[in-house]
Amino acid sequence: MDENDDRKIVITPSDENTEKIGKILANETCRKILDVLSNEPLSSTQIAEKMGIPLTTVESNIDRMAEVGMIRVHHKQWSPKGRKVNFYEPAEKLILIAPKAKTKTPYKRFRNNKRWGKPTRVLMTSTLSFRQNPS
Fold first, then answer.
1. Strand order, beta sheet including 71-78
2. Whose C-alpha in 9, 49, 55, 123 is 20 to 30 A from the C-alpha of 3?
3. Domains in the chain, start-ordered, CATH in brackets?
4. Sequential DSSP letters for 45-103
5. pLDDT digit string (tens) for 97-118?
6. DSSP state of 37
7. Which residue, 60, 8, 51, is CA-closest to 33?
């Protein structure tokens, strides 16, 4: 596997993750969770407490974001009750939206391109960066 594969998400109009990623980016709760996680790795419970929302809502959104690679487990820690607790952080990803390929998938075309920073047939590139807004 290419060392840059972990740093990118390549989607096409027909990709099954396109709709999932679009819904996550359109979801205000998901964006706020990413914003909260940009400061430090937190557990689901800590996120729920900081945001003042139900734990089930946080866990549901974390599951959706982890499924498409937008967040990841930073570390695990034992709780006072003896449970293993995940602490999450946003994944640093480059999201590429590529056209439908005639002979190769855009992902293969992109992966096989030796100039990692200059893909040849990318319609749009976007870098996700979630930072705390200064108050």
1. 42-43, 84-90, 71-78
2. 123
3. 5-127 (1.10.10.10)
4. HHHHHHHTS-HHHHHHHHHHHHHTTSEEEEEEEE-TTS-EEEEEEE---EEEE-PPPSS
5. 777 655 455 455 555 555 444 4
6. H
7. 51
Of 61, 57, 73, residue with least CA distance to 20? 61
What is the pLDDT confidence band of residue 91, given thresholds at 50, 70 and 90?
A: confident
Compute the Cα dihedral for 103, 107, 109, 112 and give only its sign: negative
Q: How far is CA 70 from the centre of its chain?
A: 1
Asked if 99 and 121 touch (Cβ cutoff 8 Å), the reply is yes
* Host H or E run for residue 21: helix 16-26
Question: Using 50, 70 and 90 to split pLDDT, how confident is the model at 18?
Answer: confident
With beta carbons less than 8 A apart as the criterion, state whether 87 and 76 touch: yes
**Threshold 0.85, pTM exceeds:** no
Which tokens hold the place of 14?
Answer: 């027909």
Query: How far apart, in whole angstroms, are the C-alpha atoms of residue 86 and residue 84?
Result: 7
Distances (CA, A) of 9 to 5, 37, 97, 106: 8, 20, 9, 11
